[in-house]
């Protein structure tokens, strides 16, 4: 998380969890509502965590960045293209 300027380990954990919550949802952008509720009350505001999470998500999408893209991230990018699946009866997914 050095690339994001994060020095506190607990903030790094919350940033990663925020990105994961975004990847598993239907939203098209990371918002403070994606920050885990257990983060509230620490020294970092949900807005700060969400801003770091947005930067992490941006770096994950950058092919020149050392941040790796997760399988959930690839699926999220595909879902954000709003694919039309009406012609199919069934979709199989494999990890």
Summarize the biggest pleated sheet.
Answer: none
Give the topology string: H per helix, E per strand.
Answer: HHH
Question: How much is the average pLDDT?
Answer: 88
Number of strands: 0
Using the alpha-carbon principal axes, give the shape. elongated
Over the alpha carbons, how many angstroms does the gyration radius reach? 15 Å
The chain-level structural class is mainly alpha
In DSSP terms, counting alpha (H) and pi (I) runs of 4 or more, how many helices? 3
> For the terminal residues, how far apart are their CA atoms?
26 Å
Uncertain runs are none
The residue fraction in helices comes out at 40-55%
Q: How much of the sequence is in beta strands?
A: under 5%
Structure, briefly:
Helix content is 42%, strand content 0%. The protein is mainly alpha-helical and 95 residues long. The model has no long low-confidence stretch (mean pLDDT 88).
Description:
The chain has 95 residues and is mainly alpha-helical. Helices cover 42% and strands 0% of the residues. The protein has helices spanning 9-23, 46-61, 71-79. The protein is elongated, with a radius of gyration of 15 Å. The mean pLDDT is 88.
Please render the helix and strand layout as text:
Elements: H1 9-23, H2 46-61, H3 71-79
Helix pairs in contact: 1-2
Task: Based on the model shown, name its key terms.
42% helix; single chain; elongated; 95 residues
């Amino acid at each position: 998380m050095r690339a994001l300027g994060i020095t506190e380990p607990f903030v790094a954990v919350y940033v990663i969890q925020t990105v994961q919550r975004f990847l598993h949802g239907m939203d098209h952008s990371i918002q403070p509502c994606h920050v885990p509720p257990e983060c509230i009350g620490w020294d970092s505001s949900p807005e700060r965590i969400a801003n770091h999470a947005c930067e992490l998500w941006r770096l994950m999408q950058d092919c020149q960045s050392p941040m790796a893209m997760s399988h959930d991230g690839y699926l999220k990018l595909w879902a954000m293209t709003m694919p039309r699946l009406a012609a199919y009866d069934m979709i199989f997914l494999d990890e």
